[in-house]
Amino acid sequence: MKLINFKWQQLILGLGCLLLMIACKSFYPTTNSDVKPLKVATDPTFVPFEIQTASGNLEGFDIDLMNALAQPAAGLTLSLSKGIAKVAGFAVQFESLPFDGMISTLQAKRVDAAISGITITAERLKTIAFSRPYFKAGLAIAVREDNQNIKDFKSLQGKKIAVQIGSTGADFAKTIPNAKISTFNSGPEFFQDLLNGNVDAVVSDAFATLYAIKNGKLKGIKVVADLLTQEYYGIATPKDSPYLDAINKGIATLLSNGTYKQIYQKWFNAEPPQLPDSWP
Ligand code: GLN
Asked: What predicted TM-score, i.e. pTM, was given to this entire model?
């Protein structure tokens, strides 16, 4: 009888522990392993926003920003199943994709989001959604260092211009009268064409080009001082994404708690400019 009593006590104790564990799990914030990782597309050829290191790791301004958003400190709240909202850090799973295919991949909902220096435009907003602006950018003209003729939009007329397929630079180049446009998949390719003398100028994102020149990665090329456009980058998601609200709140938190400034200074060694809360 004594032996049986002892077993009952063990059983009750065991059940009690089990109940306590279940209760704890539903009261406390979930850990990364409880939440399915957010699949985020990026094209790691856009220095210094997304870079693939020799060992295959991703780094860059956008990568740091996305990883910071995924920290619980950013206040990101993901709505989980059964309508329960939990504050949770979540894992980000980056997926490398060519820039040109990013919008259609988002549209087809094959990824949850994309961060790749993507400019918010009215045209793109017809098919996908964007977060609030997270980076102030703009297009610039890049030419070979010895070029003295190309200084502004007007001097691009009738010239041979290289652009990246599907980029805002490519859209802009279409507005230049009589320009002969060559399209390329990514920055390293169009700058090579410029250095080879096959084209007269490149129209692309100013910050990426300026960064590459400053860090000695792009020799023999200069950027014309005046920007051609003012643009803002946003994190792109499919339309009606359940994550967009959380991403926007997370960006607001990173802007107000100093994390954004830290990331900006790490990559650009400068004070970040003021960002609007919404686009345009
Ligand atoms: N900002 C440009 C665009 O959205 C180019 C971005 C990129 O090459 N990653 O079109």
From this structure: 0.84
